[in-house]
Amino acid sequence: MEGNIKLMREDGLRLDGRSLNEMRPIKIQTGVVERADGSAFIEWGANKIIVAVYVREAYPKHAQNIDRAIVKARYNMSGYSVEERKRPGPDRRTMEISKVVSEALSSAIVLEKLPRAEIDVFIQVLEADAGTRIASLTASSVAVADAGVPMRDLVVGCTAGKADGKIVLDLSKDEDNFGQADIPMAILPRTGKVVLLQLDGDVTEEEFNEATSMMMDAMPRISELQRNALMSKYSIEDGE
């Protein structure tokens, strides 16, 4: 039962040794799928996720929007990505994550610059370890930018939650499974516009404000990693 699982150490640190407001290590790389228009790979903690983006004319023609592009994200978890092998094919969770990622990316892309186009975002989770929707969205934003799609800003996301009665940043797998709350959030950093905010669990108003403040403080660090990944790719290309 949830109440019998200890998620904090006696010294006040979390089970993985992090402080309450400390993120797991994050690495982002671009240009990892040669035949895609844009791509990215992210390691966030033990999460390993690859994203490929393809930009094309929407087909069939009756599916086109003559004024703006259509964004379709497809989130998929490999069967071996979790300890108990996942059954192949979409389920309710993967469909829901695909939908929220599509909507969040649509808020960042200048859709009217690509009328009649379809932007396909394929997300493959190779290893899952809590927070895959936010890691997927963060990587997808980089992959879309890598494809040369005009964007107002990169979407940057983070999670916070409640474990052993404490508000913590970037939930671990145990904290996600056995904690009291999980709050994924994503924004457009330049304007601070929130493009994703969900809550699973129970928190007070004060705890919710503490969690969102903790995430907002972490967002610039994640945003910098996104931009460095894009800049690093083009710096290498220029060097060649």
What does this structure look like?
It is an enzyme of class 3 (hydrolase). It holds the Pfam family RNase_PH_C. Belongs to the RNase PH family. Rrp41 subfamily. By secondary structure, the chain is an alpha+beta fold. The protein has one domain (13-239): Ribosomal Protein S5, domain 2 (2-Layer Sandwich). Helices cover 30% and strands 29% of the residues. The protein is built from 4 helices and 10 strands, in the order ββββαβαββαβββα. Strands 1-2-3-5-4 form a 5-stranded mixed beta sheet. Strands 6, 7, 8, 9 and 10 form a 5-stranded antiparallel beta sheet that branches. α1 (92-108) crosses α2 (132-146) and α2 (132-146) packs parallel to α4 (205-239). The protein starts with 25 loop residues before the first strand and ends with a helix. The mean pLDDT is 91.
Helix and strand arrangement:
Layout: E1 26-30, E2 38-44, E3 47-57, E4 70-77, H1 92-108, E5 117-127, H2 132-146, E6 156-163, E7 166-169, H3 173-178, E8 181-188, E9 193-197, E10 200-201, H4 205-239
The CATH architecture category equals 2-Layer Sandwich
CATH class, named Alpha Beta
Characterize the main sheet.
Answer: 5 strands, mixed
Structural class: alpha+beta
Strand element count: 10
Give me the CATH fold name. Answer: Ribosomal Protein S5, domain 2
Q: Return Rg in Å.
A: 18 Å
Sequence stretches where pLDDT stays below 50 over 5 or more residues: none
Q: N- to C-terminal separation?
A: 56 Å
Strand order of the largest sheet: 1-2-3-5-4
Shape: elongated
Helix content: 25-40%
